[in-house]
Amino acid sequence: MILDLHEKLQQGLVRKESSAWAVWNNVKRYIAFEQSESAASKLRPVANTAVVMDTVAPSYEGLNLMARHNIPFVVLRPGALQPKLLESFDTLVVFSALNSAAATVVGDFAKHGGIVVLVNLRGEFPWRSLEPAHKDKQATVYNVGAGQVVELGNRSSIRKRFRGIFEG
Question: How far apart are CA 113 and CA 90, in angstroms?
């Protein structure tokens, strides 16, 4: 948090004026964010989308599009993919290659109702043994359990498909 304090208050604090410190102590009461641990554990994060990426360059366009459309997201590294960590998310956008363990976690996320968007990824994935629910030049969609896996192909289709997913 950044507070833009009036210049006179700043100067009074530097000079250790009691009136300035009285004002500051009142301000501190209003900005205190103390909560009990039990209350904090019941809160859900604002972001319900997790983005899995190693580096920014290949994922920049998708991240920029989500940010411009006010879609809050949390960035995760591929090594951090754990089922417990993903419980608070509804959508998982993956820009990084997945090893077999990570692919299993992603597949389980979809099975439990999550939406997974894979962007230009190659590899063997368990959901590919299923019949696609939809397939065109831009994407292949698999119904996996209660959720879906959407595989986006080449870079030209990514912009079109992201707009469809996040604007529609």
Answer: 8
Q: Where are the domains of the chain?
A: 7-39, 49-167
**For the whole model, what pTM was predicted?**
0.66
**Residue 97 neighbours by CB distance under 10 Å:** 13
Whether CATH 3.40.50.12780 fits 49-167: no
pLDDT tens per residue across span 33-55 = 554 455 555 665 567 899 998 87
> Residue length, the chain?
168
Question: Is residue 156 scored above 70 in pLDDT?
Answer: no
DSSP labels for 107-167? HHHHHTT-EEEEES--S--GGGGSPPSEE-SSEEEEEETTEEEEEE-SHHHHHHHHHHHHH
pLDDT in tens, 102-113: 999 999 999 999
Q: For the purposes of burial, counting CB atoms within 10 Å of the CB of 44, is it exposed (0-12), middle (13-18) or buried (19 or more)?
A: exposed
